[in-house]
Amino acid sequence: MSAALEKKLIGTLKQLEKLESDLRKRQMPETDPQRVRLLAEILKEQVPSLLPSTEKSR
Amino acid sequence: MQDKHHGIKILIVQLARLGDIYMTWPSIRALRRKHPDAEIHVLVRPRFQDALKGLEAIDRVVPFPTRGFVEPLITLADGIPKALEIVDQFIESLTVECYDLVINASFSEMSSFLTHEIERAGSQVRGWTRSIFHNNVHFPDEISSYFHAQVGVLKTNRVHLVDLFAALFDVDLAKVDLAPPMLNGDKKNLPEMAAVVHVGASDLGKTAPALFLGRALKKFIEMGWPFPVVLIGAKGEEFLAREIEYHAQSSQVQNLVGLTPLEDLFPLFEKAKFLLGPDSGPMHIATLANLPSLCLSAAEVKFWETGPRAAGSAVFPFHPDHVPASEDFAEILWDFSQGCTRGELILAVDQVPSYDLQETPQDRFDWELVNAIYFDGAFPVCEHVGTVLGAEKLLELTHFLKEQIRMTQRTGLSWTPDFVVRMTTMVKAVAEVVPPLKGLVNWFLTENTRLPHSPEVQYLQALTSLLEAFAKLLNIYHLPDEMEQVKKNG
After folding, report:
1. What is the ipTM of this complex?
2. Residue-by-residue pLDDT tens, chain B, 490 positions
3. How far apart are CA B400 and CA B469, in angstroms?
4. pTM of the model as a whole
């Protein structure tokens, strides 16, 4: 993965975290914060530097 | 209800890599035996779905489309709405199946959020699951809790993953579960009696250097090995194979790297004499094919969790930066090929690699403590004053928290969750200073996350029971008379 792509994905991850937090506060029915979090977790698995060390080991 | 099935519908979530998928095979077969009429689906990453080819116990492979989820995030300026739409569609496609049971065999954060999505639709769950409204992963069964507390980096587990999966699936394994699949195909052109060598591993840190392997194979052949030496591996490992071939300098070496689909390894292994390779996918295929394997286990790999299980297998621990002389290893390999083993090898005992060679007294204490907490083993005798002092400190913390609960109940004041947060921080700190108590502390911290958090009355009762159980275990290592004597003696 290129450094530029990794940077873009880390930026997207921050956006997703903010979106999840906003959704939890505002309780907007159209978007489910659990799904936003799931997408964030999927994305984390694609960025090696974001993987927790415990998952790298398995 | 499906046409041919009249039993329950089960989804197995296995989003790990090849090795874990093959180690799940025995449990899936046992699950099929337990539920002969069930419809069994397995969710896997498309990259690894070939590892399910030949597994007759399943009805459907469901690909987990990682690329589809992530692609809009890469290609579009604001890809989040599109990616969320794809996530929604995928979850819909799973929930519409109305699974009766979901078994999450992945043990990852992401898989726990995914499993919760299916759980929300009413499925019963085994394995990790997690809602965003909980601070921690939820462990619906004992084995999920054990895995969280005791398996992984710097943890003490010694139970093989094949057995952990069986416990997670709630099945008893039989000999037929550890067997190769019934595959039809032409086996005529496969080499016979071969020494098969898997040249790569999931990462370079687990891979034996090509120069070392090539020279060892050269000497091994010169010692009189009369059959082919077959190199296997993935396409990306071709460069390693070429280097090994170059150093081995023998026409007996057949390079099949990049040419053998995973399912072809079963017939190859059926005809082979043994496998040499790292703790990786082919090693687990060899377990199913009952092919004796010599596992080249890199230092950080816990071979007792994932090592070969076929009869006659052994483990050779090595560090990629400090490999032994190729000639010495060739002799070890020769003896192994003749069914003899040498002191340098760790032997498989009762089909699970033993751990004798590298065990220190501390290792033994750590494992015996975990074994006592979870599996009714005897509690190990403690010979370190530090451990006794650590247990004493933890007991004080436990008594303090119990006292706070009692006061809350007596006065009717509302409970302050901060007490538990601070207590767990201090408990972790004690475990850092006194590592022998780590297994016990990990048990307590994990069980603490399993307590019902409402209503408050119920939570405080459950917390009190957990603290009492913790204190009971700590009391085993609380030896006031002995400590008094130590203090007297300075």
Report:
1. 0.86
2. 445 667 899 999 999 999 999 999 999 999 999 999 999 999 999 999 999 999 999 999 999 999 999 999 999 888 999 999 999 999 999 999 999 999 999 999 999 999 999 998 889 999 999 998 887 899 999 999 999 999 988 899 999 999 999 999 999 999 999 999 987 766 668 888 999 999 987 777 788 899 999 999 999 999 999 999 999 999 989 999 999 999 999 999 999 999 989 999 999 999 999 999 998 899 999 999 999 999 998 877 788 899 999 989 999 988 877 888 999 999 999 999 999 888 888 887 766 777 766 678 888 899 999 999 999 999 999 888 889 999 999 999 999 999 999 988 888 888 888 888 899 999 999 999 999 999 999 999 999 999 987 788 899 999 999 999 999 999 999 877 776 776 677 6
3. 15
4. 0.92
Give the domain ranges of chain A: 7-49
Domain residue ranges of chain B, discontinuous segments joined by +: 9-177, 195-357, 385-488
**Contact call for residues B210 and B177 (beta carbons, < 8 A):** no
Q: Which spans in B55-137 are helix H?
A: 66-75, 80-95, 109-119
Asked if B152 reaches chain A (Cβ–Cβ under 8 Å), the answer is yes
Helix (H, G, I), strand (E, B), or coil: what is residue B223?
coil
Please check whether the two domains, B9-177 and B195-357, share a CATH topology.
Answer: yes
Q: What is the DSSP letter of B435?
A: G
String of DSSP letters for B148-212? HHHSSTT----S-HHHHHHHHHT----GGGSS-----S--TTS-SS-EEEE---SSGGGSPPHHH
A47 lies within 8 A of chain B by CB: no
Does the distance separating the beta carbons of B91 and A35 come in below 8 Å?
Answer: yes
Contact A55 B84 (CB under 8 A): no
Whether residue A9 lies within 8 A of chain B, CB to CB, comes out as: yes
Residue A49 C-alpha, separation from nearest chain B C-alpha, in angstroms: 16
Name every chain B residue with its beta carbon within 8 A of the beta carbon of A37. 113, 132
Q: Do B84 and A35 touch (CB under 8 A)?
A: yes
Which positions in chain A touch B108 (Cβ < 8 Å)?
A: 45, 55, 58
Q: Which fold has domain B9-177?
A: Rossmann fold (3.40.50)
Minimum Cα–Cα distance from B90: chain A residue? A35
User: Which residues, 6 or more positions from B152, have their beta carbon under 8 angstroms from its beta carbon?
Assistant: A54, A57, A58
Sign of the torsion formed by the C-alpha atoms of B116, B121, B122 and B126? negative
Quote the CATH superfamily of domain B195-357: Glycogen Phosphorylase B; (3.40.50.2000)
B84 and A31 within 8 Å at the Cβ level: the answer is yes
